[in-house]
Design brief:
single chain, three-stranded antiparallel sheet
Length: about 130
């Protein structure tokens, strides 16, 4: 999975927090304190689209939405890192040993077939 730069992450955070698709001018307004040119916002959105993080509609102005939820993105990152581990069992054991009691309880519930308190859909298009 492609990694996100600082500005890409900032735009993704805004898109994930939005109630629906957002136009580049709207994102530029939300980030007015950063003084970004509209062309910069469009360039970053184009890169995010090439990396598979966002999709856009055919309206004018185009409106962008995340391809997947923040949670689905985090899960994909965890799978990627685990896939790179030389010893998956050791990596999982280290991870499980490092979580706090609340997260450990959530993991136990998830492994037992419960939802562990999870909310939301895996796919952002389910909005």
């Amino acid at each position: 999975m492609a990694s996100l730069g600082e500005l890409e992450r900032t735009l993704m955070d805004r898109l994930w927090a939005a109630a629906g698709p957002v136009s580049a001018p709207e994102l530029q307004q939300e980030l007015a304190d950063r003084g970004l040119a509209l062309t910069t916002v469009h360039t970053v959105l184009g890169r995010l689209e090439q990396k598979g993080f966002v999709v856009h509609d055919d309206r004018r102005p185009r409106r962008f939405a995340p391809r997947a939820t923040r949670e689905a993105h985090a899960a994909e990152l965890m799978h990627e890192v685990l896939g790179q581990a030389g010893d998956r069992q050791a990596a999982l054991a280290r991870f499980v040993g490092s979580v706090d009691a609340e997260d450990a309880a959530m993991l136990r519930a998830l492994l037992a077939g419960g939802d562990g308190g999870a909310t939301g859909a895996d796919d952002a298009t389910a909005r």
